[in-house]
Fold this protein.
Amino acid sequence: MLEVHIPSVGPEAEEPRQSPEKGHMVFQVEVLYSGRRHTVPRRYSEFHALHKRIKKRYKVPDFPSKRLPNWRTRGLEQRRQGLETYIQFHFPEQCSQLHHRPVIGFCMDPYVYTPSPEPLPEVVVDGVLQGLYGFSTSPAKG
């Protein structure tokens, strides 16, 4: 079973000469699969870019608004809840289609995985297909 949550939001790690006003907020995306938990930080703009990619191919729910009445605590919590609901929409309990492939790529930590010119490298697709569905797109070697 695959579960995705966004348990928290907070300031991005500051760069040495960056003023606090210029800081960005990051959402901690937590993925639980086969008893293993992975957490990756993602900014709102990354969620929006993901939404635009998915929207080109599939009917998706409205994306949580960038404009919030109160940017501080309550506004951030509303945005966190909206993004969590949005991302969970793409992971129904019984995933029978591969429409969530861009979402799986979004949850990968760029510091652990080597970037690829492909939207989602075939080795990752094969691993996910093998883990979720028990089959692969690669020809059998033998």
